[in-house]
Amino acid sequence: MLIRDATSRDWPAIWPFLHDIAAAGETYALPRDLGEQAARDLWLMSPPGRTVVAGNDSDAILGSAKMGPNREGPGSHIATASFMVAPASAGRGVGRALGTHMLEWARAEGYRGVQFNAVVETNTRAVALWESLGFTVIGTVPGAFHHPVRGYVGLHVMYQSLS
CB-hemisphere CA count at 13 Å for 39? Predict the structure, then answer.
């Protein structure tokens, strides 16, 4: 799996799966009608943030991640990240590769930990992946996410210390 910095030329390949994931409303606290320009502004990060894409030998983009400080100022020593995997690539190790890459990047950048602010508790594949990579659920906000099928479900805050 090749993981590299995303460029503006990658956006036409990222947008379709980001759009579909947001529109489904099952795994991200994003507007289901998120427009393309707003999504691009949200996803393509500027330093100190970073956006990457994961691909294969055929240059197909299978997923993407954005990462950077969770907060500014006194909270900037803790990183955060968001991940999107094209649904057709689910179960092929794309999320794991992106997660491992993000953790290596965060360590190299000197972050003391990584915090995920809103992992939907019914997204059991993501929760299991992050736990397998060393994250723990440090709290759950009950009913903080309105799932289109399951109703109000919790959002996990997950954390991994890097120090």
Answer: 24
Q: Which domains, ranges and CATH numbers included, belong to the chain?
A: 2-161 (3.40.630.30)
Say which residues have a Cβ less than 8 Å from residue 76's Cβ, sequence separation at least 6: 48, 69, 70
Q: Please, which residues have CB within 8 angstroms of residue 91's CB and are 6 or more apart in sequence?
A: none
Digit-coded pLDDT (tens) for 46-99: 999 999 999 987 779 999 999 999 999 999 999 999 999 999 999 999 999 999
Task: Give the single-character DSSP code of 34.
Answer: -
pTM (two decimals): 0.95
Distance of CA 37 to the CA centre of its chain: 19
For residues 155 and 162, what is the distance between their CA atoms, to the nearest angstrom?
23
How confident is the model over 127-142, as pLDDT tens digits? 999 999 999 999 999 9
Q: Helix crossing, 124-132 with 94-108: angle to 10°?
A: 50
